[in-house]
Amino acid sequence: MSASPRPSLRPPRWLRVFLPAVLILLWLAGAAIGGPYFGKVEEVATNDQSSFLPESADATQVNERLADFLGEGSIPAVVVVEGDGELTEDQLADLQTLADDLAAVEGVQDEISPPIVSEDGVAAQVFVPLDSEGEVRETVVELRQVVSDDLPEGLEGWVTGPAGFTADLAEGFLGIDGLLLIVALAAVFVILVIVYRSPLLPILVLMTSVFALCVALLVVWWLAKAEIFVLNGQVQGILFILVIGAATDYALLYVARFREAVADGQGRWDAVVRAWRGSWEPILASGGTVIAGLLCLLLSDLASNRALGPIASIGIAFAMLSALTFLPALLAAVGRAAFWPFIPKEPVAQISDDLSQPVRGLWARLARFVSRHARPVWILSTVVLLAGCVGVTQLKAEGVPASDFVLGYSESRDGQTVLADHFAAGSGSPTYVLVGEGDAPDALAELEDADGVDSVSLVVEDSPTGQAPVALEDGELAVTAFGPPGTPAPEPTVSDGELLFAVTLSDAADSDAAEQTIRDLRAGFDGEFGEGVVLVGGETAIDVDTNDTSIRDRTVIIPVILVVVLIILMLLLRAILAPVLLILSTVLSFCTALGVSALVFNYVFDFPGADPAVPLYGFVFLVALGIDYNIFLMSRVREEALQYGTRSGIRRGLVSTGGVITSAGLVLAATFAALGVIPILFLAQIAFIVAFGVLLDTFVVRSLLVPALGIDIGRAIWWPSKRLWREGPETREPVAVGASGAPSERGAEADAGPAGAKPATRRSLRRR
Predict the structure, then answer these.
(1) Is the pLDDT of residue 495 over 70?
(2) What distance lies between CA 561 and its chain's CA centroid?
(3) What gap in Å lies between CA 315 and CA 378, rounded to an integer?
(4) Which of 26, 62, 120, 433, by CA, is between 20 and 30 Å from 249?
(5) Is residue 244 within 8 Å of 274, Cβ to Cβ?
(6) pTM for the full model?
(7) Which are the contacts of 127, defined by CB distance < 8 A and separation ≥ 6?
(8) What share of residues in the chain are helix, strand, coil (percent, to 5)?
(9) Quick one: CA torsion of 151, 154, 159, 160, rounded to 10 degrees?
(10) Is it the case that residue 648 has pLDDT exceeding 70?
């Protein structure tokens, strides 16, 4: 007597219509609310490097006290003017007129300095304090326009200094809201059209990504508004790319499962449910791994790094949520029409697992090749990757001058060069030394004897420039008046019993020589007065503290990320050896990507160096995202191995996941490469490292190295798992592959066993 059929668990028709409709409307509402926030990011973003430093840094402490001496919220711009020869009386009069016009620009604070002529008489500079709380970029743009309009023939001018570099940096980030998204989305759309040969499906996938980004940005904006996180252009750009890339990857995994169900002839709702059951676990596992890696950035002492961790994690969370709710709802609405005009109609084909039998399809051929030559494949792959690692020694990641942050033309950089030709190279970006009144004479003596110091002034309120020359006379400070003979000397500005020296360095403020001067000054002051008694700040000191903190961060965070990801893999795969091998392969891939990138940066792009945070960011993205693809592969391999044995399971897993993971890798590489359109050195380097590393991981590590290594080791790769290591079968059964050759990513519940056998369920697998 045959068993009665199981009752249908399908929900009623009204629920199958109502649930997708509600999900679609909720996401439409979220996107409608979050979309306008793309144009409001500047309201909560900052590119002030000092705001990212830890509170304990010397530069931070000095920066917090500057307002007590210089007034609230000012940032200096330096207007430098150069003539064809020595400046004439008429030209000097024109420069005074120019200074008066500059003072009238909105956003300029207090009185600006009169024109200060260089010793050679060929150039002059004017110090213009700007409101740092205002629109610095717009103010600098207007200053540059005034300089361009007012200077007579024979004179050329530039606006540089800290305000100028801030404006150039902000200008470089302007394309994030528009150009970056357009390029990234266009690249993804083209790849998806080529892969699926459908005009509708790429639109549905991109809607999944864009809507996830809109809602994530809405949340991030309000968190930044509440000053919970520090948001800058760098973090913003990475958030955009990461959400677009990750959401598309997760969507592709779901679409591949949905496509298999459609090809097997299942109806719209059944296909959606089957795809969801087959994809939710790997999506949550891979997304959770990325989030865990990103949250390790909370260990950073730099506020920008700490902010990236939770901000990017929020983006990944919404990427997963969108792929598991919004995309299924969309596919439930359109059904198999999503694949039009090439709607999959044939069920999955069966090919023999006998390696002597002919096969069809790229991934089936690759699986057979790897099986036949497993040991040579993984050894050769490892040797090639190790060869690429050699370039790591060429990576110059000790920091770059602020003048090199912006790629291409920079008026501030050109102006700084002119300034250094006629004045002390550090002019316009003073180093500030905060010292108690009693220790001021000895500190001044230390400064006057120090190498790399051109001149020292004392910050005073009642001076046209805000500073006055100072010298030692009989062991006491002697302040010199600025102006004609007989002008009374101004009184030093004292705050909380402390004075502030403004030190002009002999070298450019963002040069290696200037940074060494800062280190020498700090060492001398600590030795003379004790640690932390005399504090050194200013632009150069900020660069020093930022680089030192970045180096500390990457030394601490990288090992923590490795341990966290390793633990997650062990829990997911229920093994030790396989996760260790996956981690080692990913680290090897990262080192290769970094080594090749270093050679390209030095000898192709001729970059001046790299920020110390570049290796850290590259590691976070490549390890977290590289592990993603290994999770997609090995979670499927484990499913297959439980039924067919390890070696057969690896072949089946490679065939099943090959297309979707490769498509996802291409999409992710293209989205990160889009960062290269933003003319910021840091983002351009991250774009190349991650894009190249993802492609390397996709086509070499995941397609060749990991499968070959697993096949060579066999069931021992699952040690110490008893089910797979000691008792796992090693049968040779047919392996499923999509007949059309399109990406195939099937769940264990849909896999066919031996001919005529009933497909294995999770419960039956557990009983085995």
Answers:
(1) yes
(2) 16
(3) 35
(4) 26
(5) no
(6) 0.80
(7) 76, 77, 78, 112, 113, 116, 161, 428, 465, 466
(8) 65, 10, 25
(9) -160
(10) yes
